[in-house]
Amino acid sequence: MFKRLLLLAPLAATLLTTACTEPPKEAVTLPIMGERDVRPRADGGPADTVFATVPRFRLVDQAGQTITNQTFAGRAYVADFFFATCPGICPKMQAELLKVYAKFGQDPRLSILSHTIDPAHDTIPVLKDYAQRLGITDASRWHFATTGAHGEPTAKDTVFQLAKAYFTAAQPDQQAPGGFAHNGTFALVDDQGRIRGLYDSLNPKEVTRLLAEIPVLLTEIDGRKKGVTGK
What does the alpha-carbon distance between residue 49 and residue 79 come to, in Å, rounded to a whole number? Predict the structure, then answer.
């Protein structure tokens, strides 16, 4: 018995040493979606990688506030595209976004941005009523926004181009319910305007993934603010 204990002692010490010296696991990070440009540096150092970002936009939300890229500087947001008279997938999409709002609606690090693809109909009063019927009273937490607040003739084309930038399909279609065809993509955007995740809002597993990945992105943003990571 004594001999057996002598043999077990070195084994236990080895296992303890291995456990203590095992390298820490790398922090989980989300991919950066879209094209990227690798640019050589003039000083001969490692090339810089420039990632695609959401293009410049200027919108107006249900409270009459002007919304631009700068509105979300230093914060993350979830973007989607809808229209108020949509009889198809929009009610399901908004129900799923309400889950995001319920979990993160009080977190100042995250907002929601819903773009109407029917700016001719979805005026600011219509968007305000739509938001209120969903129970959203604070426009700064969830923006329902339009490209056509002032009757711009190109408003519809502008929002369709913006949808493409978020990897969302949206276009007029008289055969589709409500006259527009669009998919239910949610886009998760970081503090630098880069899309970090795409999610099918009609798939419950995808929405669950979004809810799990938002904290990952918020942790990354917090680290960047503290100078921990330069990604």
Answer: 25
Residue 80 is classified by DSSP as E
Percent of residues, the chain, with pLDDT higher than 90 = 71
Indicate if the pLDDT at residue 50 is higher than 70. yes
The 3-class SS string of 125-139 reads HHHHHHHHHCCCCCC
Q: How far apart are CA 27 and CA 200, in angstroms?
A: 25
Dihedral sign computed on CA atoms, order 64, 69, 75, 79: positive
Length of the chain: 231
Q: pTM of the prediction?
A: 0.83
Cβ atoms of 67 and 60 within 8 Å: the answer is yes
- Separation CA 112–CA 130 (nearest Å): 15
At 49 the three-state DSSP class reads strand
Residue 102 backbone phi and psi in degrees, to 5: -60, -35
The pair of structure tokens assigned to 115 is 């773009």
| C-alpha closest to that of 141 among 103, 121, 112 | 112
When pLDDT is averaged across residues 46-58 and rounded to a whole number, the result is 84
Nearest-angstrom CA–CA distance, 197 and 90: 20
Q: How would residue 67 be classed by pLDDT, with cut points 50, 70 and 90?
A: very high
